Structure formats: C-alpha cells, structure tokens
C-alpha cells in the first residue's frame, strides 16, 4: 500500500504562503498493535478552509483528536502560531484558540443557548455570574454570525442544524483562531448546509483557519481551499482543491479506480408486467405530524428510491412501512392481501426487513458479538424457545461474513469494535438471514467508507436481480438514480412525484425537490 | 421533527415565521420556557401548589393544624432532611445518586456523641464530623470519576463503610450532654407573632440559600447542570468535569455530615442505627421537588418544598391519630408515583415536540 | 487468531484463557478463594462437616443455607440488571409475601393443616406476581426509569406489608413452613435445594434457549432489539415479574426461618445485598452481558464474609465494615481503569493481547484485498447468499 502514494500527481504547493497558524509535523500515534497515525503532517493557514479527506479508518478523527488534545501523540510536533504546543486536554486546546464542532453536537441540551455559548467563560461580577452580560455577549455573537436564534431558548428545543450553529457561535465567542468541523453536515439538509457554509465563509473572511471533515465530495469542493488526504494512517498529500480533480482525489483516498461505482449503471431497467400484483402496495399511508398520506408500490425485483431532503418524510414513510411507527391513516397490502403493520414484529412476519438510518442507536448491539448480532433478527422471529442450533448458526455466520466481506472475519469479535462500514454489513446480513421479500434500507451508505459503499450498492442490485424488492432511501440523489428503478420524490412531508428512474435526470429530481409542484 | 423546525430562520426560500402575538399567557409561557430550568420551574410550582393544598386541607380538617407554628415546625422537625436533600440535589443534578447519606448521618451522630464523651471541645467535634463527611464524599467521588465506577454501587459501598465505622465506634446509643449542643437544641430564634424557629431550621434555610446561589451564580454550579445535560459534551467544552463531579460528592458528604450534626442536636444522642433509610427520604424529596433523576434539570428550592411535602404528610397522619404510621409510607410512595408519572408524561410531550 | 477463527468458525482454543483473564468473574472467584483460604488458616473449624441424622451440618452448610434467599433474589436481579434495569423493591416484596402468608396461616380455622399452608403460599406467590407485574408495567409500558419505578414500591411496600399485618409481628406454626425453614431434602437444607433448582432452571432456560441472548440484546440496545423484532417490552416485563416471584419465595423462606413475619425488618437491605452479589459477580449495572455463575460467586462471597466474622467470634457489628472493605477491593480490581493500569505494568505484550477485546486488526483495514467479488456464493446461483443450507436447518 505504501507505493500507492506515488500514484497521486504531486501538486507542489506554491511557496509564497502566509505562515501556517497550525503546523503538525511527523505526528505518530501508536495504538495497541496498530499504528493509527504514521508520520502525518498537516498545515492550516489563516483565512482558509482546509478539508481533511480519507476513508473511514484513514486516521482523520485520530489526527483531529491529536490536534485538540483528546489523544496524546507518540512522536511529532504541533505548533500554533509558530510556538510548539502540547495540549493535554480539550480545555487546553480551547484556551489556546482551537475550537471543535463535532458531528454529534457536543453541547448541553438542557441549558439555554446563552449558557451553551458562554459556559466555562461566563462574565462575572463580584464573583458571581452576570446573567445579563452573558446574554448580551451571546446576542452579540449570534448577531455577528447573522443568526436569528433566541439566546434565552433552551438548546434542546432547536433542531440539530441550529444546535450546530450555536456550537460554532460558541467557538466564535472563544475567539478561536482555528475551528475544526468534524462532519458537521452529515445530518443537515441542503438549506441547512447552505446556512452553515455561509457562516463558515464569513469566519474565513475574518481570518479563521477552518479544518473541515466531510464525506460529501460536493461540499468539500464547494467550500474548501486546500485539502490533506490521508490513507491508512499515512499522509498521501496536500493539495489545493482547485488543482485536484475529483477522480484524482477519490483515487488518492482509496488507492484504486472507482470502476464499480460507474459499472453499476444498470443495463436495462427491470420492467413491471402489466397487471402484476405489487409485493407491497401502500395507499394513503400517513402519520399525523410526520408524513402526509402517501402511495407507494414496490414490485418484485424492483428497487424503489425515496428521494428528498432531511425532514421531507422519507425516513418517516419508511418507518411506517416497517411498523416502527404506527400509521394514523392508510392501508397496506402485501401480495394483494391487506395487512396491518403495527409493530416491527408484525412487519417481519410479512417478510419485511428494515435497516435504520441510525446505525448506532437502532442497529448495532455493540456489546454482543458479530455472531449474536447476525443471528438476532432470525432468532427473534423464531422466538426464544427455538434457539438456532450451534452448528447451523456457525455455518450461516461464517458464510455471511465471507459473502459480505466483514472485517475482521471473527464471529466472536464484539460488534462495537468494528468500523462503521463493517457494522453496516453485519446489520444487512442480519436482515438477509431472515430472507426478507421486501428490504427497506434507510441511508444504508451514509457515513461509511467508499469501499463498503460500493459493496453495499452492488449487493442491492444483486438482491433485486434475484427477485427481492427494495426500498432505498438516500440523501445522495446520484446514488438513488443509479441504483433504483423508480424514484418517489418527497418534499415537505408529501410525496410529490413517482418517476421512472430511466427517464429521469438528476436535475429533474433536484427541481422537484426544490419546487415540488409536479404533482398535478 | 416538524419541517418548520428543521428550517433555519434565514434558510433560502423559507421566510421566517411571523412572531407570535404577545399575550400575557404567551409571555408567561415564554418566560417559563426561556429559563434554563424551565421545565423544573413548572414542576416546582406544582410541588408548591401541592404543599399549599395539603396544608390547607389539614387546616380545614384539624382545628389546630392551621397555626403558623405548625408550618414552622415542618422546618424545625425536618431541618436535617432539608440539608440532606440539598446535598442529594447536587448529586442528582449531575445524574448521580448518593446512597450513603443516611449512613453518614448516623456516622455524624455517633462521632459527635463519642468525641464529646471523650472530652473534645464542641467546635472541634463539629469540624471533625464535617471533615469526615467531606472526606468520605471525596473518596467516593474519586472512585466514581477516577475509576469510572457506577455511583449507585460506590455510594452503596460507602453506605456499608459508614455504617460499619459507626458500629466499630459504638454499638449502643450514646447520649449527648455537651453544653453547646444542648444550648443549640433548646434555644430558638423568636419570630413575630409568638412563633419561633430552631437554630437548626435557620441553618437549613441558609444552606438552601447558599446552594441556590452556588448552583445558579457560579461556574461550578453551571457545570453541575452541564454535566447532567451531557457529561461528554461538558468535557469537550473544556469544563472542569472531574473536579465538579468529585465536588458534588464532597458537597453531599458535607451536607450529610451537617445533617448528622443537626440530627444529633435534634435528638441529643449518637447511635449507629440513626437515619436508616434517610437517603430514600432525601431522594424522594428531591424527586417530588421536580428534579429529574437523569440529571440536568431541577431546583434546590424544589427539594426544600419536597421535604416540606413529606413533612406535611407525616404531620397530617400524626394529627389524625386514627391513621396508622404505615400510611405515611404508602402515601409517600403514591406521591412519588404521581410525580414520576407526571415527569414521564411531560418528558414524552417535550420529546414529541422537538 | 482472527484468520484461524475465520477458517474454522467457533471459539479458538487459545482464546479461552485470554477471554477468561479478561472476564470479571475471575476476580470474584479469586476473592472467594482468598476468603476460604483465610478461613482454612485462621479458622480451621470452618470447613468441618458432620452428618447428623442423615443431615449435613457445618459452617459451609450454613453459608449455603443462609445465602439461599439472597441468592434466589440475586438470580432474578441478574436478569433485571441485564436488561438495563434494577429492582429496589425486592425487600418490600419479600416482606409483603411473608406477611401475607403468615397472616393467612394465623387467621385460618386450622393453622396447622397442609391446605392452609398451600393457600398461604399460593396467595403470597400471587402477591409477588402482582407486584412484579406492577413494576414491569411501570418500567416497560409507562417507560419510567427502573430505579425510580421500583423506588415507589420500595417506599410504599413496607407500608403495605404493615397494612397486611396491622403493624404486628405475626407468628404462626405450621408443619409445612417448619419444613421450609428447617427441613432437609437428600441431606441438604430445603432452601438450598430450592435455590439450586431455581438456579439450574434459570441457567438452562436462558442459555439453552435463546432467551439469554435476547435479554442481553435488550440490555445493550433496546431500540435496536425492538427493530430486530425482539419482544423487548415483554422480555422486560417478564424479568420484573420473575424477580418479584423469587422475592416472594425468598419471603416465604425468611419468614419460615424465624416462624414470624416482621413487616418492618424482614428482608431489610436484601435488595442491596442482591445487587452487590450481581455486581461483584461481574455483571455491569449498565446492562447487557450477564453471568449467573458470577452472581452465585458474588452471593457466596458476601455470605462467607458474614459467616467468617461470626465464627471468629467478632461482634456482628463488624460485618458491614468487612463487607465494605471486600466490596471496595473487588470493585477496584474490576474497574476498567485499574485493570488497564495493572496490564500496563505487566508489559506491552500483555497490553496488546488483552486490550479490551479489540481484535488485532480492528484499526485501518489492509487495503489491498478489500474487495473480492462481493457476495460470492450467490453469484450465478440465483439465490440470496446462504439460502439453500438454511432451509435444511431451519425449516
């Protein structure tokens, strides 16, 4: 793997540059048995957005944690403004001017916006906290960022996107010279991302150095000036964003051609015979406050995509189809027979399987082994009185670990110790073991590395080819269009269109999501 | 969950919602919501109303109940429990629990009694007891934070340890005859209208006031709430999580020891079996006072009211005479249930609203 | 190790030792061994057993007899804790059960008849089931935190028990209860036999069926378990009913032991002892994986300690002090941080091997063979991977 670094066209950075505000050089971190980072360097310049790129396990978060004082490093130096530093805690890094906004908002939902902004640095008068001055300061920071958020409101009453902006406001309040954004956009919709980027740009203009981590290439190219690519704990290179074409970036990240992703462009859409009974037909299915009554039909061997922004009702609709939430209106027919989906168990009995978007919260049973996780749904369906015989279980587990290329291939490893992509494969296998006839996949490829993503996409195509029906939800429209036979477009909790994927363009779907008036 | 929520105020294509018309109800609701402890303000109000209703019912039902002194006696008779509940509030606000407090009360009484018997001067005894309680709390805090053990189990061990030390010092009850202790026990603070408060009750109220100040006007106090809201966030925000977590157990240990001193003044003896189950009363008072057991929400005033509610129930059952003492336990259980279910329902509503 | 296990599925033999060393049960067993060793040296009479009238007597027998009620409850508590729960009300349930039973016997027309005993036992057990259902309802249906949901019954329960006995200590004589309190089966105390049978049944029921794994799944991640089709709610409900049931049986034992039902003091703090036994045995209060063996060892540690203190002629006031010291030591040894520190001192090799179950290659995955052709067995067979064999086994 080491020679792979040479494949990347070397892009020498022009020499007349301002002094970097942060320079990490030769950072090495040794974890038990593994070198998590090996001689990695990173430079952040004032007034630049710097993207840190790499697959899962490349060492991005380890590098960030080394910078922000969460992990100690075994070798290398970190300088801030030319002075060597060694932060022992996140508090040290913060005091030195490095603030971090994490993927899961790390603020306190029970406190007010004001308190979250000034916490730990509250203005004091005669030894006690000056509440009025705190509020004024919060208000000023929010105004600077042009954010219309009531500083007295409780943080938990706001959606994640707003909470994230408050986290940035907190960083601004600390006069951070360096702002680290660790996957801030993974749960935001397009409008929210635009708002976030507006704030990021204004901070860039003020000379803040911003380190940005994201899985979304589009966003990286939209916002970043410079990028550093890591692979397997090593530095692949530092490039100006403008000088590095996407294909080169992807090649640098994964060290191989992305042929499979392109190949998936399916040759011929699978036709639906006239009069064929759909495997699943939902009509007027809705839930008050979550999704307006909607119609969905999925035929055997077809992949139906649900496209829409976060909050458009795509997840809500999928959950209704699985009985994870209860519908308040509508009927569902499976193979022409009316059924009532009141609980996951009921849906499973109908041959439906559901991969939740919330992998950690609703999928992974971390303290159990890969084996137990794989067999969980099948075992639950059989009931506790009929355990799966040991040997049969071992065989199934071994076969699926091999088939889905789960790493490490140890059935007794605890699932929480696997990477996100491998966890997702285990969860998929958990459902495949139940031999579902309808597979509901809610964002199955989110937050996992490109290799695993390609494997999962290919698997979906293959399952459909074998006759399984699939509902595929994804925030990435390109992915939806590539994989699906038809696309149901949602907007504002309503289905606005049901299109054939073969004669739909990306722009067309984007247009629908943006305007949503193609219904009539 | 709703779309209008997820929309940003200035997101392109989505004009901001028009501001709601400000009626006074709206203003009041906004005030309640806007205070950081908003939902607990409501709970505390509920507890206050309950207290008034209980007391009012008692005044109507029993002719001697309505006197101001009866109300003040609630403070006098429960001074030690108020102090205990204050310490417990700190711990519960961080999402922890302290099962050792009842045992530390007993330890306080036994230490005080035996040291006084051994001829130590009273001020020194008081310092020794408070230091012991704080030390025990500090050790438990270290075990909880430093070793990442569960508070439930660490303070359970602390409870056994404190009771064990009690027994090791003295099995039988020791009377207290010290001049200072008896003086504090006998003398009272005269109030207008011929009413009075004991020194213990006054001290308990001072403790409540100091605690409220510390919780709301110091960084330590805000960190307590932050830890209750999300400990990992608090750490990543650079707050002194470790110091604060250990600190709340020190405070709880200190309060328990102080409660022990108040108890020994109240009862003028030291005994290793004093205060059995007192930690449960303290927890019940805190919960009835509107503090969430998961941490992050609650007011120390609520805990004061919670103690008074418990005291009122005991007083009512005493006044009745026809009711047996076990009705106290059953009533407290029922009350606990009602409050917990209410908390659960409001939490559910808040959850579905966001 | 990883490669081998992939080639031949199943537990690699050399992993067993490493796994055992990581297991927290080990420390509990070590603590018990130290305690017994101490007795062997300081207190030789501790191990003497004698048979009298075909019945076994001796300190060890006393240990297992006295541990019976605690252990019985601890077994139920283990399952509750495994689901992320806790039950503080078992002491109160125990008191109610005993009170109900003896109030029935005392008030019966013929207090000594077998029918009276059957009625008393039936009602006591029924009371336990009802109280367990109540706790289970609060936790699994209403969704209240277990610690506070069961605190309600813990507070109110003793009041209810006093209500039943009208505040008195109820004494009664009945041959069935005498047998339960002091009888023998096959030379062993009845209570020991009952506890052993329950333990065996629970062990078989949870580990030979899939119940154990499902309980653990609910404990680790309830939401994921529900979506995987596990009846999370009914499993949670059931464990609370079960622990109350064993608490009721323990109540009958405790009451029979002294031929009196004391609503105020029967089973006081037994919930704490039971929880301690579970935790000393290595089951985390955070839920998830549990060990019944560990619970048994934990309960034995607590009881051996008590018996040791008593047989050494020390005043029983010291029991709590010793308990606290032993508990603190066991917890310290189990604390992840302390164990990590101990490992570090033992050298880097030990660190790499025992690092919290991290597989050797959990870090960056070697990139080159990342993609062998994806679901390989399915290629061309026209079926989902693994389907044919499953049908043979499962249908």
Automatic annotation (TrEMBL), chain A:
InterPro entries: AAA+_ATPase, ABC_carbohydrate_import_ATPase, ABC_transporter-like_ATP-bd, ABC_transporter-like_CS, P-loop_NTPase
SUPFAM superfamilies registered for this protein in UniProt: P-loop containing nucleoside triphosphate hydrolases (SSF52540)
GO cellular component: plasma membrane
MF-aspect GO terms: ATP binding; ATP hydrolysis activity
Domain of life from the UniProt record: Bacteria
Membrane protein topology class: Peripheral membrane protein
Domain (ABC transporter): residue spans on this chain: 22-257, 272-517
Pfam families reported in the protein's UniProt record: ABC_tran
Residues annotated as signal peptide: none
Subcellular location: Cell membrane
The entry's keywords: ATP-binding, Cell membrane, Membrane, Nucleotide-binding, Repeat, Translocase, Transport
Predominant cellular place of this UniProt entry's protein: membrane
Family matches, as CDD domains: ABC_Carb_Monos_I, ABC_Carb_Monos_II
Annotated protein name in UniProt: Monosaccharide ABC transporter ATP-binding protein, CUT2 family
From TrEMBL, chain B:
InterPro entries: ABC_transp_permease
Record's keyword terms, sorted: Cell membrane, Membrane, Transmembrane, Transmembrane helix
Top-level taxonomy: Bacteria, Bacillati, Actinomycetota, Actinomycetes, Geodermatophilales
Entry protein name: Monosaccharide ABC transporter membrane protein, CUT2 family
Transmembrane regions: 39-58, 70-92, 99-118, 124-145, 152-176, 196-215, 246-267, 299-317, 323-342
One protein family per Pfam: BPD_transp_2
Gene Ontology terms for molecular function: transmembrane transporter activity
PANTHER family found in the cross-reference section: ABC TRANSPORTER PERMEASE PROTEIN YPHD-RELATED-RELATED (PTHR32196), INNER MEMBRANE ABC TRANSPORTER PERMEASE PROTEIN YJFF (PTHR32196:SF63)
Superkingdom of this protein's organism: Bacteria
Automatic annotation (TrEMBL), chain C:
Main location, first listed in the record: membrane
Region listing for Disordered, in residue ranges: 349-395
InterPro entries: ABC_transp_permease
TM stretches of this protein: 25-47, 67-83, 90-109, 115-134, 146-164, 184-205, 235-254, 266-285, 292-312, 318-336
Keyword Oxidoreductase: no
A Pfam family matched in the record: BPD_transp_2
Membrane topology designation: Multi-pass membrane protein
Any one GO molecular function term: transmembrane transporter activity
Keywords: Cell membrane, Membrane, Transmembrane, Transmembrane helix
Keyword Cell membrane set for record: yes
Start-end of Low complexity biased regions: 349-363
Compartment annotation: Cell membrane
Composition-biased stretches (Pro residues): 364-375
A Gene Ontology cellular-component term: plasma membrane
Name listed for the protein in its UniProt record: Monosaccharide ABC transporter membrane protein, CUT2 family
Taxonomic lineage: Bacteria, Bacillati, Actinomycetota, Actinomycetes, Geodermatophilales
